[in-house]
Design a protein that fits this description.
Layout lengths: L4 H18 L2 H14 L12 H30 L7
Helix pairs in contact: 1-2, 2-3
């Protein structure tokens, strides 16, 4: 529930690098969006002065990111043979 745009941008940057290292392209792209919105930029890097809009975009992108992360996690667990059997 943190609403600090600068902090959200920093976290987006950190996660973008980590996901890029693992080859998680969709996750990386969503993290880059969060980083941009946290820096009060639009997706294309142009300035955005409406902080509320930036926060709304971060919330939406974060929902997408969670799904992308879950998909990537399942694939990685399957690849490495560490997925747990479901009941």
């Amino acid at each position: 529930e943190e609403k600090d745009l600068e902090k959200l941008s920093s976290l987006g940057h950190f996660l973008k690098g980590s996901s890029a290292t693992l080859g998680l392209v969709k996750v990386r792209d969503s993290c880059e969006k969060i980083q941009r919105y946290g820096k009060k930029e639009n997706e294309d890097g142009t300035p955005e002065t409406d902080e509320k809009l930036c926060l709304e975009r971060i919330e939406k992108t974060l929902k997408d990111l969670k799904t992308e992360y879950e998909d990537a996690e399942k694939l990685l667990k399957k690849f490495f043979g560490t997925e747990e059997e479901e009941d």
